[in-house]
Each structure stands twice: as structure tokens, then as C-alpha cells.
Amino acid sequence: MVSELAVKAFDDPDETVSFDNGRGERVQLEGRTFWRSTVEPGWQFSRDNAPELRTDRCPSPHRLYVVAGRVVIEMDDGARKTLEQGGVALIPPGHDAWVDVDEGAVFFEETFETEP
Questions:
Q1: How far apart are CA 83 and CA 105, in angstroms?
Q2: 16: how many CB neighbours lie within 10 A of its CB?
Q3: Phi (first) and psi of residue 10, to 5 degrees
Q4: What residue numbers bound the domain in which 85 lies?
Q5: What single DSSP character describes residue 93?
Q6: What is the pLDDT of residue 113?
Q7: What is the pLDDT of residue 53?
Q8: What is the pLDDT of residues 63-80, one digit of tens each?
Q9: What is the rounded CA–CA span in Å between residue 29 and residue 57?
Q10: Which of 48, 57, 74, 76 could, after both became Cys, cross-link 20 (CB 3.0–4.6 A)?
Q11: Residue 58 carries which DSSP code?
Q12: Residue 43 belongs to what H/E stretch?
């Protein structure tokens, strides 16, 4: 539960992370982690982020909101959904994600260790 009003801005993040084909800005509020990710055409988690994390698929759950572009989410079981601008998703651990090779994307997400 939120105990008090807390405000931060992605224009002044707690951390900025650059990776192949993109970057992310992180802000933390009351133990919650929020990201703004800007990814270039052709970005794919399993290729551009996973090697540094020493994993094949994303091990974290997410709440995701797509601001621009399209993001494809594919689960370990092969289930696949495409989110377009304005799309919102709850994504469990064990997934890959990518954007169209001709278009990048911007999305906001909250990552968390356990289900809220």
C-alpha cells in the first residue's frame, strides 16, 4: 500500500542504462521500480539484454504500457501477443519481447519480484 505521495520524473532518473539497440531510465518510488524504455528497430530482449543478464528469457514479471510502436511478447509456451500504442499487459516471468525491424518503440513498465 502507498503510504504517502511520492513523485519523480524520467527526465531526472535514478539510473540510465544503455544496451544494444536501446536505453532505459529507472526511477524508484517506495520500493517499486519503474522504467521508461526506448528501443530501436530490431530490438529483441533475448539478443540485446539477456546475455548481460545471463539468461535466455526474461525472468521478471512486468506491468507494461506501450507509448509508441509495437511490442511482441512471446511466452515460454509459445503464446504470443502484439501490443500497439496504448496497449497494456501483465507479463509473467519466462518471456521474450521484440519490436518490428522497421519501427522502434517506447514503453513504460513496472517490474516487481513477486505478484502484487
A1: 11
A2: 11
A3: -70, -20
A4: 15-111
A5: S
A6: 60
A7: 78
A8: 999 999 999 999 999 999
A9: 26
A10: 48
A11: B
A12: none
Does 82 map to a domain?
Answer: yes
| Cell matching residue 116 | 502484487
Side-chain-side CA neighbours of 93 within 13 Å: the count stands at 8
Distances from the Cα of 79 to the Cαs of 74, 82, 92, 113, in angstroms?
A: 6, 11, 12, 22
Within 42-102, strands assigned E span 62-68, 70-75, 80-84, 88-91, 95-99
84: domain CATH number is 2.60.120.10
Query: Given a cut of 70, is residue 60 above it in pLDDT?
Result: yes
Q: How many domains does the chain have?
A: 1
Question: What pLDDT does residue 50 have?
Answer: 81
pLDDT at position 2, please?
A: 76
Question: Does 46 map to a domain?
Answer: yes
Distances 18 to 23, 33, 48, 77, 109 between C-alpha atoms, Å: 4, 17, 10, 29, 16
Q: Quote the CA–CA distance of 26 and 49 in Å, as a whole number.
A: 15
Residues 26 and 5: their CA atoms lie apart, in Å, by 18
